[in-house]
Specification:
InterPro entries: Gfo/Idh/MocA_oxidoreduct, GFO_IDH_MocA-like_dom, NAD(P)-bd_dom_sf
Radius of gyration: 18 Å
CATH topology of the largest domain: Dihydrodipicolinate Reductase, domain 2
Shape: globular
CATH class of the largest domain: Alpha Beta
Largest sheet: 6 strands, parallel
Structural class: alpha/beta
Helix content: 25-40%
Protein name: Gfo/Idh/MocA family oxidoreductase
Distance between the termini: 45 Å
Order of helices and strands: EHEHEHEHEHEEHHHEEEEEHHH
Pfam families: GFO_IDH_MocA_C3
CATH architecture of the largest domain: 2-Layer Sandwich
Length: about 300
């Protein structure tokens, strides 16, 4: 098996490669020399492609695509043209323009495109199901520090009109988990954000979204970008009780946070299975995030 890594713009492809290297040969394309050197130091056997076209010419069986969000559609197009299953690291879109371009591109080939928060495949969450008729409301709390952005790291991620900032990049974790439980019939009712600790951010370090599903269930996503520990919590409120699901790194973060489960789902796609996350769900998640970003254009 040959897996292509198209871009290394965030930490995710480095984590994915540690798992995928156990399954086959790696081919990588990345324009940033420092990131590329880090990747090849970890995987000295990886084949380096000089361009994205060169990576596609290497005929990978699957592609992990991680480029800055504004470049996703342009990079995804030739991969889809080649008929290759692709995992687009999140978020695949952060603005209305990006989402419109992505939607038109993916729709004809949605069965070959996976884009998701890895938390969907975390052992503590995967396979969970609820009866919507019994649910009163849901809440997702995302604790993931964004202080690194205040130092100037990956400024495109922190820029609302490019990578979406904290509201999109961290908010996706909470929205993803709730849509996985309750389905894509959801819309944003309101959003707010602020900077509480990390001065110098281009976006926010704290945010909240209010959601409503078509059947009347309400939901809340809390985003806490100032935190000493990373964790993700989902609370499902019913008349009888509140069920709480906690996702943490544990002793093995690649397993505990869902990286390994996501790779397994991607490898099933490479083997011919359709995307495990329907595009209808991914699009609904991105639409909520884009709408929230529009509602809170600056911190």
């Amino acid at each position: 098996m040959r897996i292509g890594f198209a871009g290394l713009a965030t930490s995710h492809p480095f984590s994915d490669a540690r798992t995928l290297a156990r399954h086959g040969e790696l081919v990588v394309w990345e324009e940033d020399a420092e990131r590329l050197a880090r990747f090849t130091a970890e995987h000295p056997g990886a084949v380096v492609a000089p361009t994205l076209g060169g990576l596609i010419d290497a005929r990978p069986d699957g592609v992990v695509l991680t480029v800055p969000t504004p470049r996703v559609a342009a990079a995804l197009a030739p991969v889809l043209d080649a008929g290759v299953p692709v995992f687009v690291n999140k978020p695949a879109a952060a603005t209305r323009e990006q989402l419109t371009a992505l939607d038109a591109l993916v729709a004809p080939a949605a069965h070959r495109v996976l884009s998701t928060s890895v938390l969907r495949f975390a052992p503590a969450f995967a396979g969970r199901a609820v009866d919507p008729a019994e649910v009163l409301a849901v809440r997702a709390t995302v604790r993931h520090d964004v202080g690194l952005w205040a130092t100037g790291y990956n400024p495109w991620q922190d820029t609302p009109g490019e990578g979406g900032g904290t509201m999109v990049t961290m908010g996706i974790h909470g929205v993803e988990l709730l849509v996985a439980l309750l389905g894509p019939g959801v819309r944003l009712s309101g959003a707010a954000g602020s900077v509480r600790r990390h001065a110098g951010l281009r976006s926010e370090d704290t945010g909240v979204m209010a959601l409503r599903w078509d059947g009347g269930i309400t939901g809340t996503v809390e985003i806490l970008g100032v935190t000493a520990e990373e964790s993700y919590t989902v609370a499902v409120h019913t008349r009888e009780a509140t069920e709480t699901i906690v996702i943490e790194a544990g002793a093995d973060p690649l397993k505990g946070l869902g990286y390994e489960g996501t790779v397994e789902a991607f490898l099933a796609m490479v083997g011919g299975a359709p995307s495990p996350v329907p595009w209808e769900q991914t699009r609904a998640i991105l639409d909520v995030l884009v709408t929230a970003r529009e509602a809170v254009p600056t911190a």
